[in-house]
Amino acid sequence: MKVSLFFLSLFLVVLNVQPSFSQNTISGKVTDGQALIQGVSVLVEGTNNGTSTDARGEYTINASPKDILVFSYVGMQTMEIVVEDVTEVLNIVLYPKVEELEEVTISGRKRKSQQEFARNYFSDPTIINTNVGYLSPDLVAWHLRVVDGRELNPNDYDILEAIANKISGTVIRSKRGVKHLFPSSFGSMKLGTVGVNFEVDGNMWYNYNPPLHLDIDKVIRVALIYPDDAIRLFGANFGGPGVVVINTSNIMQGSTEDGNRPYDQVRLRNNFYAGDALGENTLLRNGPTYLKELYASTDSGSAHEVYKKYVPTFGSSYAFVLDAYRCLLDKFGDEKLANEILGNHTKLFAENLLAMKALAYTYQENGELKKANELYKKLFVKRPNYVQSYLDLAASYREIGADKKATAIFTRLDYLQNQDYFTMSDTMTVAKLVEREFNNLLALKGERILSKKEQKNLEDLDTDFKGTRLVFEWNDGEAEFELQFVNPEGRHYKTEHSLFADGDIIREQKLLGYTTEEFLIDDGMSGTWQVNVKYLGNKRLTPSYLKAVVYYNYGTAAQRKETKVFKMGFKDVNRELFTLKVPSSLITN
Questions:
Q1: SS (H, E, C) 113-158
Q2: How many degrees, rounded to 5, is the angle at CA 344 between CA 339 and CA 348?
Q3: What phi, psi does 160 have (nearest 5°)?
Q4: What pLDDT, in 10s, does the model give residues 288-316?
Q5: Which is nearest to 265 in space by CA: 482, 149, 118, 133?
Q6: What single DSSP character describes residue 281?
Q7: Cα atoms in the 13 Å half-sphere on the side-chain side of 323
Q8: Of 66, 134, 162, 299, which has fewest CB within 10 angstroms of its CB?
Q9: 3-state secondary structure of 164
Q10: Using CB atoms within 10 A of its CB, is residue 271 exposed (0-12), middle (13-18) or buried (19+)?
Q11: Helix (H, G, I), strand (E, B), or coil: what is residue 289?
């Protein structure tokens, strides 16, 4: 969030809230998907605190938030779970170890192919195009520093100055009238006698003839490869001093199908939508008995009687309470009885953070924005060590028109990041999302909340995206699911949020405390898009809640948003969430 420091002194808010790290008692069962497994090791990483599952596959262990529980068993893939403040039940499924030849899994993530890197080039600023293929920190096992060209200062004297000013550990020296760029500080490495060599769009430039003529504005990506690794890639002759790889817009980068623009992810392979997503009516017919009876009621009074009938059985379930509340409100418009139901379960929502967040989502969907704001303030106090608390409260303040308070929250988050309370690199998904949210606030509301002097800094804001933006958030950090986007041609793109598909990302999310992802839709294919979800579970028996915020005309004065909330209860069923009509092609952040 690079832009916030210039008014830090104006909005710095010191919040005297500290996270609580009392231990949780965590229990559950471990299976292989069918049978219970005895003797599974359950260990708090880095400690001697451990146990194993008994003859019934059950275990109990004490651990603190941010601890990592390691589940291991001979012949099965090891699973690592980051403990959260709400973690109490973890029912684990372990999978057999399989030796894969064409596709391997590293740290719970599938290694991507070169074709996938090409497709993701413009949506993932950590990817660099080189003569030896696409490289990324996700692919290599050594230190690779990649910089987005937009971070370079176009006013620098030349490309070498721009790189040296942006990449720490590089310096410029002149030798015999020629400028050289040196990787000056990497471990115990000493300053070499000659500067790095350059690869620019596949062309080799030796240090005695650096590409000083390059237009900095046309640089898409820059990567610094240190000598030892450069030698392995380019050979001793060219790689010996180290190599700087530069991609520019002068040639086509990324996928050949989209050229120098984000690849339309929906055009992957033979991915035609099967039309198998279930609608709300089908889900209702297969739902719990109480839900079918609620919606079969002819008036709010009879629906309220159904609610009272099932309270003795389901009254401790916040999902049941929200189902009754939403039925009374959505189907019958009876605010009085709906709020009476919530009032009967005040303690449930006050003590259960997952329930509180699901209720906040529901308030936002219903337009009860001040009620949602009160809940987000409580969640912020209870979870000051969660990045999501800052995102939610800032967004909530914007919804009620308190733009200065939203700015204060973003500024506080930036301050804490600079104090290493939160460690977010520029390439992290959440860092990019936070920056986009804050820049959007300043771009649209800056005239109201900044002085004229401070408004001059708005020219540097990265607000280049304009179009339709989708932001998904889920109330439970253990929730796993697939999102499916179907384009007007009937082709789909899937993204899976699970430990198997994205173990490293989920670990990052839980350590930083965020549960959100965005998708951007630009001005490509026009028509109606459909968004589906397949719920994969949350390691316990309760449902999870998914909030989808659709921003139309994002980044313009006409920007507006729509909030939709869904209870995810049916596992392994493809379900239609909503459709939207936009001119678009899908890009992920």
A1: CHHHHHHCCCCCCCCEEECCEEECCCCCCCCCEEEEHHHCCCCCCC
A2: 105
A3: -65, -45
A4: 999 999 999 999 999 999 999 999 999 99
A5: 118
A6: H
A7: 28
A8: 299
A9: helix
A10: middle
A11: helix
